[in-house]
Amino acid sequence: MVSRWFLLLLPPVFLVGAAFVLVQLFEELDRDRVDRKAGERLTLYRQTILGEYQKFRYLPYMIARDPRATAALGLGHPVDSANQFLEEMAENSGADLLYVMNRDGTTLAASNWREDLSLVGNNYGFRPYFTEAMEGREGQFFAIGLTTGRPGLFLARPTPVDGDPLGVAVVKVDTSQLEHAWADGGERVFLSDANGVIFLSSQSDWRYRTLSALPQDVLARIFASQKYANEDLRPVSADPVPADHVLRIDDALYRHNVAPVGLLGWNLHYLVPIEETRASALPIWTTAFALCLFYAVVVLFLRGRRLRKTSVRLRQESDELKELNTRLIDEVQERRRVERQLLEAQRGLARSNRLAAVGEMSAAVVHELSQPLAALRMFVAGTRKFLEKGDVGTASENLDEIDSLQLRMASLTQELKRFSRPAESQIKQVDLRDSIRAAEKITRPRFQETGTRLHLSLPDEPILLETAPLRIEQVLVNLLRNGAEAAAGEADGEVRLETRTGDESAIVIVGDNGPGIPDGLKERIFDPFFSTKANAGGMGLGLAISMRLAEDLGGSLSAEPNTPKGARFVLRLPAPVPEPQADPAPVIAETEAAE
Predict the structure, then answer these.
(1) Whole-angstrom Cα distance, residue 279 to residue 27?
(2) Which of 38, 172, 421, 532 would be a feasible disulfide site paired with 97, CB 3.0-4.6 Å?
(3) Averaged pLDDT for residues 407-426
(4) What is the pLDDT of residues 468-513, one digit of tens each?
(5) Do 326 and 415 sit in the same domain of this protein?
(6) How far is CA 349 from CA 225, 358, 363, in A?
(7) pTM of the predicted protein model
(8) Count of CB atoms within 10 A of residue 211's CB?
(9) pLDDT on residue 241
(10) d(Cα 579, Cα 133) in Å, to the nearest integer?
(11) What distance in Å separates the CA atoms of residue 292 and residue 21, rounded to the nearest whole number?
(12) Which residues fall within 8 angstroms of residue 283, CB to CB, at 6 or more apart?
């Protein structure tokens, strides 16, 4: 019988203890919730304060550099033009005040020069921000304005920025909107300085009070700088700030969280009435007993139900395991069948790839031979004209060019065969300038035809590379031809080619002043068979082949916007062979089309 009663009394004792633990737990959870919310608010408000500071931080520097604002310093007396300029700057920037002081601290120009409380003529040389600025530093100081009576953050810079200061440019930032935002949110927030003086607060009666009593020497320094005018700076409470996040203000207790702002030693404080951290304590005792009793009954009921469900689940899992084993055998057989089909599909795909490669190579042959053929036609036409005029010498030179072009066409055919086998390209030491001149000679008819000018900027000394010269010429011909066609529609169309060398690469830059590359097509211009020249007969292979050739040579080809308009293509090739030379003097060569 005793054992039975003991068992009956044991659950209530356990439930009372559980209720006590729950009360402690929920109180801790409430405190954590309040602290998390406080941390989020502090982070948000801190960013707002720093954002306001960064918003106006540039202004003193700009004013210090602007002769319109500092003209009064050179004359030694106020100037209306400087006042008007500062007034306009204050209106456009949203700053509370802008003013300029001479080396003695007397204000010579101010944005409020039209108002009764104008700063012009007043001396503020005792302010710390003036002293810091005259020492060449950035002055920062929060105080109540002695003339206007409005508090604000003062930011100062010396003028001129470099050399001995002749004066100081100052911006005053109005911080009252921060207090209004805190008050409108219904929260208790305040900002204290390095001495613990509250200077911004959502509660107006807390403003210009201190977290604790200040020593007399600290009070003396504050009053000497007139930072807070004639405020008495009395403490909010006789108790010191405790370490357990509890702060007493006017006999009211608050949960207190603080975060440093990172500016002038300021600290941001967020307060929550202590009752909010104990909101769950009162109802917990009644609900906890009921919940714990109910929990005990449910546990007994669920335990039996869980045992029954476990038995049923074990039987179901046994059946499912058998079914899974059967499906696994079927899946293994299906996978083997799919693997056989995949092997057959891969063989078919390989055949298709070979056919596609043949088609792409044919298109590449047509594209690459079209450029020397165009040049060949121009030379043939020119030779006929010269023969008709009896100019055998020039005709002979054109025949030499024709012979050179047919040799190039034969070489191009051989190079296109090597396109799919880059390792077979002939590598030798070449002068990059020779490749550029060869490409210019091939594309010269196209420039004459389009009326586009070509500017070459080449150094005097050789640019020696270990590479395949014909492939470089192919890339350059494609880039120059594309540039000529892009700039053909411009009234003053031109293409510029320049070279640069570095420790790791040689760079060729080809830029034009055409319409440029549309933003939506930048990622596709190097795709095979893609072209932006809808009516120009282009096959979309030039840039694709050029990129492939550049990569085969160990380099790269990229596109970027030109300045002020057009496009630039940057060809990077492996590091040139070093050859000590005197400092190069660039030589500019210009080819005028259709003169």
Answers:
(1) 8
(2) 172
(3) 58
(4) 888 899 899 999 999 999 888 888 899 999 999 877 789 999 999 9
(5) yes
(6) 85, 14, 21
(7) 0.46
(8) 22
(9) 58
(10) 53
(11) 12
(12) none
